Amino acid sequence: STCRTSTMATRMAAKSGGDAKAEMARRTSNRSRRDGGPGWKPMGTRKGSMVPRDYLCNDGGPPRWFCPLVKKREEKTRPLMLFLPGLDGTGQMIAPQAENLADQFEVWAMAVPQDSKANFQELVDMAVDTVRKEAEGSPPERPVYLVGDSFGAVVAIEVAYRLPKHVQRLVLVNPATSASRTPWTQWGGLFPLLPSEVYEALPYAIAPVLANPLRVAETLSGETLSPFDAANALVEMLALAPALTELFPQDVLKHRLQVLNEGVEMAEPHIRELKQRVLVVAADEDRLLPSVEEGERLRRKLRTARVEKVQGASHALLAEKRVNLMRIIEKASFYIEQRGLTSPSRDPKGPRGLKQLTVDMPTEAERRQALEGGVDNLRRLTSPIYLSTTPEGNVVKGLRGIPDKRPLLFVGNHTLWALDMGMMIEHFLSERKMLLRGLAHPALFAQSGPESGGVSNVFSQFGAVQVSGRNLHRLLEAEEAVLLFPGGVREALKGRGEEYKLFWPQNAEFVRMAAKFDATIIPFAAVGGDEIFEILLDSKDVLNLPIIGDSLRERIKNLPNARSAAMSRQEENFASPLIAPRVPPRFYFLYGKPVDMSDVDPNDKGACDRIYMNIQTEIYRSFDYLLSKRKTDPYADLAPRLVYEAPSQFKQQAPTFSL
Predict the structure, then answer these.
(1) CA-CA distance, 270 to 120, in Å (whole number)?
(2) What secondary structure letter does DSSP report for 360?
(3) How many CB atoms sit inside 10 A of residue 227's CB?
C-alpha cells in the first residue's frame, strides 16, 4: 500500500503547534511513504482487534491520506475516489470494499489521528486542498468521486459545495446530515460525562446499534457462517466491543461530536446548492440514523440525486461482507470512466483547464431517467418530426443539415408552456451527440422554500444556465451549442389567437454576440405545441379574477425578470392562462438554413439589425411550410399514429409527408 499526505496537513500542523508539530508532520509523511501509511490492514481475519492500535495513528501528526490498495494499472487512467470516514476517523470502513473498487478507481482514504483536534473547517480545508491539487494535476476528463460515510458525508457535501468544478460525483453512505434530528446528538453529549466504569460498559449496548452483529461476524470470518459458527463468531465479536472505548475515549468522543454538530450546521444550507450528481446509499436497518428517510429528503432537495436502499444492512454498511459498493454504484449507473464534456474549447486559467461554463454531458442513464417521465410520454403522443436545412438551402430529414462547426446558436419560437423543449434537447443528444445549452429564465433557478431547492439542478444537469448577456458571451466563447428563445415568458404563456407568433425584443443583441465569436445561427420553428391546449382565459383575464387573481399576483410579484423593461416590449407576466387539454397533434421541428456570422462586423448595427429581421422572417416562412405540409401527413392525427406505432411499442415511427 501507498500513503500520500496532503500539503495542507503540514500547514495545519504548523498552525496548531509551531515548528515542532510541522517537523512531526514531515516525519510522519516520510515514514508513511516508506512504510505504507498509518497501519493499513484489510479487515477479514478473526484474530486481532477490530481496531488495531496502528489505526489510531497517535503519532502527533496531522490528518493524512493513504491508499488502501494499489493496482498495476496506471493510476491516472482511473477515476479518483476519495473516501471520507465517519467519526472513527480511521478510514478502515472502506477496507472490505477496497478490492472491489480498486479495478475501477484509484482509491484514497482520509485518516484522522485519534488525538487530532482538527475542527470541521480544518478537515474540509484539508480535503479541499487535496481534491484541488489532484484534480488540477489530472486530465480534465478524469472524474473525481467523493465517498462520505456517515459524518464523512457531511464533509463530502461541504467539499463538493466549495469545489463544483473539481468534484463530479458524490456517494453519501448513511449520511449524518440527519444527526441534528436524532436523539443521539443529545444523548451523545452525556456519554463523556459518565463515570469511567459505566462508559467502559457502554459499547456492549451500543455495538448492535452501530452494526448488524451477524453481518459483521461474517465479514470478520471471511465466509458465510453456519448457525454454530455464527454463535461462536458473535461471542468473539462481543469480546471486541471494548475496542469502541479505545477508539473513542471520553475526551475524543466529546470533541468529535462537537465537530459533527459544526459540520451539520455548516453543510445544511449548502445541500440544495450542489451541482454534482449524487448517489445516496441508505441501509434500511440503520438504528443509529434514519438513513432511508434522510435519503429521500436529500433526493427531494437535490432532485438529481438517486437513492439506493440496501436491504438488511446496518449503519456500518460498508463493513458488511454482503455489501458490494462497486455493484451498488454500477446498478445505479453511477460509474463513468471518463467525463464527456460539452465544450471542445480549453482555458489554461480555468478550473481544471476548462472554460467556466463547461459541464459534463448527461450519461445514457440520466437520459433514460429523464425520458421515463413526461418527455417519453409526450414523445409517444406527438411522434415529433425533425427536419433541417443544409447550407445550400435543401430541407432534409433529421439533423444532418446542422453544421459541425462551433459555436452554434439556435434561436426559435417558444410553444405554449414550452413543453416541446425537453424532446428537442433529448433528440439532439440522441442523433448528434450534441447537448444544446439552454439559456433559461432566472425564475426556474429561484429558490422559494426549504424543500424547493434543486429545481435548478434538473436544468443544470442538461446544460442550462440563467439567461443573460454574460452567459451567452461565455457559452459562445467556449464554442458551445447554445439554445435561445428570445420570446421568453411572453411567448411561452401566449394568449388566445397568438399561435405561432413571435414576441421578440427589439434589441438584436444576440446577433451582434454571434458575430463577435464567428458563430453560426440556426433559426428554427416548432409547430404543434401551440395547439396541445385550448386557452379558456388569457393571463390578463386570470389576473382579473376575484380572489384567485389577487392570490396569483402575490405569488409571482417577486419572481425575477430575464431582461430589463427597457429591453422588452412589455413587462413579463408569469400568470399562466387557463387551459384545457386537446387531442395532441403531431409536433414538427424545422431547423432553417444556417446563418454564418464569420464575415459580419459586430459593430455594424445596420447589418446586425437586417440579419435579426431576416431570422424572424425565416421562422415565419418555416411556420407556413410546416403548417402547409402537415395537411399532407397521413399520420398528423393521433388515432392513426397510435395504430401504426403502438404495436412496436413506439420503436417504429409513423412516416410523414414527403419533402
Answers:
(1) 15
(2) B
(3) 6
Residues 178, 157: Cα–Cα separation, whole Å: 13
For residue 572 the three cell numbers come to 413579463
What is the DSSP annotation of 201-267? HHHHHHHHHHS-HHHHHHHHHTSPPPHHHHHHHHHHHHHTTTHHHHHS-HHHHHHHHHHHHHHHHHH
Contact yes or no for 174/317 (Cβ under 8 A): yes
Quickly count helices (H) and strands (E) in the chain.
24, 19
Q: How far is CA 39 from CA 7, 24, 219, 221, 558, in A?
A: 20, 17, 19, 20, 58
Per the CB < 8 A criterion, the answer to whether 478 and 471 are in contact is no
Tell me which H or E stretch contains 84: strand 80-84
Q: State the alpha helices, DSSP H only, in 433-538.
A: 455-461, 469-477, 488-492, 509-516
CA distances from 321 to 96, 219, 358, 392 (A): 7, 5, 40, 64
C-alpha cell at 407: 459555436
Cα distance between residue 323 and residue 164, in whole Å: 29
| Residue-level pLDDT at 559 | 72
Of residues 614, 622, 612, the one with CA closest to residue 506:
612
Q: Which residues contact 488 (CB under 8 A, 6 or more apart)?
A: 414, 441, 467, 503, 562, 563, 572
Which residue carries 476519495 as its cell?
A: 82
Q: How far apart are CA 438 and CA 443, in angstroms?
A: 14
Q: Count CA within 13 A, CB hemisphere, residue 577.
A: 22
pLDDT at 140: 93
Q: Strand pairing partners for 148?
A: 84, 172
Which stretches of the chain score pLDDT less than 70? 1-60, 69-76, 184-248, 303, 373, 445-460, 562-572
The pLDDT of residue 95 is: 86
Q: What is the pLDDT of residue 75?
A: 61
CA angle 174, 175, 176 (to 5 degrees): 115
Listed in sequence order, the residues at least 6 apart from 24 whose beta carbon sits closer than 8 Å to its beta carbon are: 13, 17, 59, 60, 61
HEC profile for 49-115?
Answer: CCCCHHHHCCCCCCCEEEECCCCCCCHHHCCEEEEECCCCCCCHHHHHHHHHHCCCCEEEEEECCCC
Hunting for cell 447589418 — which residue is that? 607
The secondary structure of the chain in percent helix, strand, coil, rounded to multiples of 5, reads 45, 15, 40
Helix (H) or strand (E) holding 608: helix 605-630
Partners of 596 in the beta sheet?
520
Note if the pTM is more than 0.90.
Answer: no
DSSP letters for 459-472 = HHHTT-EE--HHHH
CA 565/CA 386 separation, integer angstroms: 35
The CA-atom distances, in angstroms, between 580 and each of 90, 351, 533 are 60, 48, 5
Helix (H) or strand (E) holding 541: helix 539-543
Alpha carbons 296 and 640: distance in angstroms, whole number: 42
Name beta bridge partners: 535: 579
Measured in residues, the chain has a length of 659
Report yes or no: 288 and 315 within 8 Å, Cβ to Cβ: yes
